[in-house]
Write a structure and sequence with these properties.
254 residues; alpha+beta; 2 domains; 6-stranded antiparallel β-sheet; 6 helices
Length: 254
């Protein structure tokens, strides 16, 4: 699969609760690896505090074990470590409720100020939290296509910054979801050479590049894959884009 992921496993203990994940992802892994195998959750909090500079107050009920492992490329930025930690917390029945600034309380998820609704009791078992970065398809579009494929306790969350999807489900279903993502995340761009008569290739390329940037800011899926190359020798422009975006770009020079 072209998209790369970072894998987190969290062991659910008996009576643990599960709440829909609301995580974000911004950058490629850029820090030290994070490999914690069946670690006491309080020790994990200490590790995250060191990595992120955040401060935590732990509820006396916070207990259990968590395993967090970096993906094949190992390193995690501070924000990635923080988001994966939040995912692991929620799968094991806890949440980080903000106090002020960078201070948080770790409490049972049903008491979290940001709880989205009733928390259902879940059976003991392993859930996998997979963050999958996408190369071509928009994360919101991908998440919408996967929404009906997750289990009752599963979650699919799009992450616009970084164009990624977070999958939370039992391991075998996450594998199936990854296969579906691989089918969705294909390069469907097309190439078009645009000959010019009354304008220079470099000027038209500049205009089209700016328009592509505006389309991307509008949130149009696939806008980030646009490529515009001026060809001075033939006074033409070579454009690579999704068909719907190419149509908009062609309208400018028609």
């Amino acid at each position: 699969m072209a998209a790369r992921g970072l894998l987190t496993r969290a062991g659910l203990f008996a009576g643990a609760s599960f709440l829909q994940l609301a995580a974000a992802l911004a950058q490629e892994g850029c820090g030290e690896a994070l490999n914690l195998e069946n670690a006491d959750i309080r020790s994990v909090v200490d590790e995250i505090a060191i990595r992120t500079g955040k401060k935590f107050v732990l509820d006396p009920r916070v207990q259990g074990q968590v395993s967090i492992k970096s993906g094949p490329n190992g390193g995690l930025c501070a924000d990635e470590a923080w988001e994966l930690f939040q995912a692991a917390l929620r799968v094991t029945g806890f949440t980080a409720a903000p106090i002020n600034g960078d201070s948080y309380r770790i409490i049972p998820v049903q008491e979290g100020a940001r709880s989205a609704g009733p928390v259902n009791e879940s059976e003991p078992g392993d859930f996998v939290t997979q963050i999958v970065r996408l190369n071509h398809v928009d994360s919101r579009e991908a998440a919408a296509n996967l929404a009906q494929l997750v289990s009752e306790r599963g979650v699919v969350a799009p992450v616009r910054s970084g164009n990624a999807v977070i999958l939370v489900d039992v391991a075998d279903n996450v594998q199936r979801l990854q296969q579906v993502l691989a089918q969705l995340d294909r390069d469907t761009t097309v190439y078009r050479t645009i000959p010019l008569e009354n304008a220079s290739a470099s000027e038209v390329a500049r205009v089209l590049t700016n328009l592509a940037r505006e389309i991307s800011e509008e949130g149009q899926p696939g806008a980030g894959t646009v490529s515009v190359v001026p060809v001075a020798g033939s006074n033409s422009v070579l454009v690579r884009a999704e068909p719907v975006i190419l149509t908009r770009l062609m309208g400018v020079v028609a």
